Amino acid sequence: MKNLKENVFSLIVKLLTGISLLLLAFIVIFIFKESLVFFKEVSIFKFVSGRTWNPLGSPDKLSILPIILGTIYVSLIGILIALPIGVGSAVVLSSYTNQKVKRVARSVIDILAGIPSVVYGFVGLLVLVKFFEVKFSFASGESVLAGGVLLSIMMLPFIISTCDESMEKVYRDYSQYSSALGVSKSYMIRKIILPQSRKSILASIVLALGRGMGETMAVMMVIGNAPIMPKLLKKCQTIPSLIALEMGMAEVGSLHYHALFASGFVLIIILLIINTILYFIKKNIDI
Amino acid sequence: MDVSEKVKDYIFKIWIVLSTLAVVTVVVFILGYIFKNGSKAINMEFIFDNPKGMPIGSEGGVFPAIVGSLFLMAIACIFASILAISTAIYTVFYCKSNKIESFIHLIVQCMAGIPSIVLGLFGYTLLVLYLRLGRSLLSAGITLGIMIFPYIEVRVEKTLREVNKFVVDSSYALGVSTGYMIFKLIIPLCRTDIISAILLAGGFAMGASAPIILTGAVIFAPIPKSLSSPVMALPFHLYILTGEGISLEKAYGTALVLIIILLLINIISVVLNLKGKEYR
Fold this sequence. Notes:
The complex is a heterodimer. By secondary structure, chain A is mainly α. Chain A has a domain at 66-242 and 269-284: Orthogonal Bundle (MetI-like fold). Chain A is built from eleven helices and no strands. In chain A, helix 3 packs across helix 8 (198-214), helix 4 runs antiparallel to helix 6 (144-180) and helix 6 (144-180) packs antiparallel against helix 8. The two termini of chain A are 44 Å apart. Chain B is mainly alpha-helical. Chain B has two domains: 3-39; 47-278, MetI-like fold (Orthogonal Bundle), CATH 1.10.3720.10. Helix content of chain B is 77%, strand content 1%. Chain B has a two-stranded antiparallel ribbon with strand order 1-2. In chain B, strand 1 and strand 2 (59-60) form a beta hairpin. The model of chain B has no long low-confidence stretch (mean pLDDT 91). At the A-B interface, helix 1, helix 3, helix 4, helix 5 and helix 6 of A face helix 1, helix 3, helix 4, helix 5 and helix 6 of B.
């Protein structure tokens, strides 16, 4: 009797684990299956290299090169801004604060991470976009730059927590030796902690890149959503915002509908690659 | 130290101080902005009344959206934690091969990386169209559940691994079966930590709008009576109020209500987490 219970339990655990793992395959296959209809009409190469997105035109007018570039551009701007700030504050958090301050600081960072993206988008639209329009008298504040700045704020918690964790470890390992040698703290951070945290910094970049490219609401609300070649101060479009905006309008089963799945498929492939890279970087960090 | 090192040191210090200041400023600004503007819009009527006016939402309150968001969070949590806790238990206690374990970690990592809008897309075709669940509380809840599954799994697995190795080894030595040990020893020890992890992920689900745009959130619906009715949700409501330019004041209020609920969830989760540490 006891054995039976035991077996049933382990069977249920295994079954549920199997289901969870299959979910990923299921999602990828399902999205792929829905985009296949589209790829039969338009070759995948043409889809990712063409420059026009016009759902009302002929099938070959559906292509997403500017949108892919927009997705990457906005994320890169975000990382460019967030990385120095994030790493700098991770240094302070890991090496210049006592336990109490650390605990408070970490929960503040958790709060930053927990603010919903639609709230970021809301604040971005009312503050950032308006700021660009008023102060720099842009024709429209909705731009790649606005999206990048907003994304950088959303990336900060990921960068800080990834870097802080390994920096603290390195700091604990070396602080006694270096203070015994009379080396100043800042010198030690520059010569030991930062170089030793290389991999974590790299991991945080990849993580932030993945987050940024998949971000929907916040980016969608501030970039203007025009499927043109992205320029820093002009409107652009990203894959997630394209899907979120147009899916509701696309007739189920139409080519437009399948094209949106196709762009979702492109995005999912890019992100699976990024996350696999991230997994191997993380595995190499020996903490 | 020569001069150039001194200059470098100086620049380094300026850099880290400025970046810390930048982070603090951003946090204070965003929260301050929402609280300052939102507090004017919030009163009893706003919290406990239905949205009214023409266009809908320009007057009245957000009560159905608050309830809807809580329902969505509950369904997402139930769906995700069943799968996540099982996966964590399997990985920690049943999985004997390192390769399978690494594989599971890779899958979970990749699932965490799937953009929420793609999950929305998935939920829309599979749950709403193929399984004919319609745009409903259930479809949206399950989609959110898929989204938070990896977060719960990672945290629960970490908690299970932190259980004193001594407890596990002694119970094996006494010939206690794995299942019995998990129910009578491990789960009671980790209960508060697991609940804390689920709550944190639940807060994340509650704030997400991309997965529910296509799967169940609507501009107006009464408090859902069954799993198959469409719902209102705070983040989606905020998006509509801003995107359609319906009412800025109500948008500020909605944002503040959402932030306050999330902060409360966050605080409860942190307190539980600290409590969990005491018992170990």
